From TrEMBL:
Pfam family, one: MatE
Keyword field contains Acyltransferase: no
CDD domains: MATE_NorM_like (cd13131)
Subcellular location: Cell inner membrane
Topology class, membrane: Multi-pass membrane protein
Annotated protein name in UniProt: Multidrug-efflux transporter
Spans through the membrane: 50-72, 93-112, 132-149, 161-183, 195-220, 240-268, 274-298, 319-342, 354-374, 395-417, 423-444
Keywords noted in UniProt: Antiport, Cell membrane, Ion transport, Membrane, Transmembrane, Transmembrane helix, Transport
MF-aspect GO terms: antiporter activity; xenobiotic transmembrane transporter activity
Length: 450
């Protein structure tokens, strides 16, 4: 019989799985940061258009990635029970659902210009965003397939390959951006279209690497993941769909509050929107650490649930929450002490708008410090609840917190009360705090007791 882990043992196990996932999330986020930095050097209008375009892509991606995220706890629980056939069935149908979603959503990207103009965005910015999305949207299917394979490999505790593949993708993205955005080394100068081509290329590369690893690694061949891939498994597909759609909608509810804030920031001005995009990228980098720890908590909670280990589940949850809170406090200190220099890293000082963007971005980054703890707690609670395969009620709690509380608070603070962009971000703080309280309460009431 396996001896129960101490709290130190839980910390080691969580970090052993979580650190590669954190690294891969940070590397994945670096793809977007590279686009933001390099387009910031290229032009403020181009930067604002990709802030909008990438935000729309991300919102749709988050919705579709619910099926991929459902694979993680399902595979973890199947492994905890020793059911290897179910591992293959769930993962394969996650891949099927991701392909279908990617095909359905592409028309939205093709017609993004009129949608953004109807939302009150500057016509030039909206047109450039559409140019970006018509190309970048082709990467939705490979991006979602990568997410399924990441979930599968994470549940198998094979996250290191995800990190290395994503790091290779970052290098390729920077090189292709340098060539295609600016037209260096004889390449055509494509601006936002060049950034989109680079994004699609790196998604295809990452998919090829992870797919080959999952199919060819001797230790994983026993799962026969791609054998007779074309054969449907309707029972598994229904199970993945049933668990995945609430996850996708939960992510949509959270992610869309930032999209809505970007749209409202666009009503205030292009400089403010550019500063919003930069501050959001920085805050999102910190969030990737919390997300990686949350993913590790999902896997470890799912494994514990599968083998009926209630004490291990609760102890592991306490340790994962503590690790996430510790990192959150360090980010609070960083954002409050060095906001200006951090924002300045994303801009060319020679640009005449840089000073205004840095000044406004510094205010937003200081406000981002306020929601670090709430953000850590809400994403950790969601990860732990997914480990228990509890997704529908958390979806409702998140939607209430973000859309019935957070967005109205943002609008009221920004416009009727006249606080502008700072008010928008204060509303985000309120919504995330409510979500953290409700979701953490839900987890501790649902977690099995020893």
């Amino acid at each position: 019989m396996t001896r129960p882990l101490t709290l130190t043992g839980h910390a080691r196990a969580t970090l052993a799985l979580g650190l590669p996932l954190i690294g891969s999330h940070l590397a994945q986020m670096s793809l977007h940061v590279a686009d933001t930095v390099m387009l910031g050097w290229y032009g403020v209008t181009e930067l604002a258009s990709v802030v909008l375009g990438a935000s729309l892509f991300f919102i749709v991606f988050i919705l579709g990635s619910g099926f991929a995220q459902a694979v993680m706890p399902m595979v973890a629980q199947a492994l905890g029970r020793g059911d290897e056939a179910q591992v293959r069935r769930d993962t394969r149908m996650g891949l099927w659902l991701s392909i279908g979603f990617g095909l359905i959503c592409y028309p939205l990207f093709w017609h993004a210009g009129p949608i953004l103009r109807a939302a009150g965005q500057d016509p030039e910015v909206a047109q450039l965003a559409e140019d970006y999305l018509r190309i970048a949207g082709l990467g939705m299917i490979p991006a979602l397939l990568v997410m399924v394979l990441k979930s599968y490999l994470a549940a198998l505790e094979r996250a290191q390959v995800v990190l290395w593949a994503t790091l290779a993708a970052v290098g390729l993205n920077v090189a292709l951006n340098w060539l295609l955005i600016f037209g260096n080394a004889g390449a055509p100068e494509l601006g936002v279209r060049g950034a989109a081509i680079a994004s699609v290329a790196v998604q295809l590369l990452t998919l090829a690497v992870l797919g080959a690893y999952a199919a060819l690694l001797p230790a994983l061949r026993r799962f026969h993941l791609f054998q007779r891939f074309w054969r449907p498994d309707w029972q598994a597909l229904r199970q993945v769909f049933a668990l995945g759609w609430p996850i996708g909608l939960t992510g949509l509810a959270e992610g869309s509050i930032f999209q809505a804030s970007a749209l409202m920031m666009g009503w205030i001005g292009t400089v403010e929107l550019a500063a919003h995009g930069i501050a959001l990228e920085i805050a999102a980098l910190a969030f990737m650490v919390h997300l990686g720890l949350s993913n590790a908590a999902t896997v470890r909670a799912g494994r514990a649930q599968g083998r009926g280990d209630a004490k291990g589940l609760r102890d592991g949850a306490k340790v994962a929450i503590g690790l996430s809170l510790g990192f959150g406090l360090s980010m609070v200190a960083l954002f409050l002490t060095l906001p200006g220099p951090i924002v300045a890293l994303f801009l060319d000082r020679a640009n005449p708008d840089s000073a205004a963007i840095i000044a406004f971005g510094s205010v937003l980054l200081a406000l981002a410090a306020l929601f670090q703890i709430a953000d850590a707690l809400q994403v950790m609670a969601l990860g732990l609840l997914r480990g228990l395969r509890d997704t529908r009620v958390p979806m409702l709690l998140a939607t209430i917190s973000y859309w019935l509380i957070g967005i109205p608070a943002s609008y009221i603070l920004a416009f009727p009360l006249g606080l502008g962009g700072a008010g928008l971000w204060m509303g985000l703080v309120i919504g995330l705090t409510v979500a953290a309280v409700l979701l953490m309460t839900r987890f501790w009431r649902r977690a099995p007791k020893p």
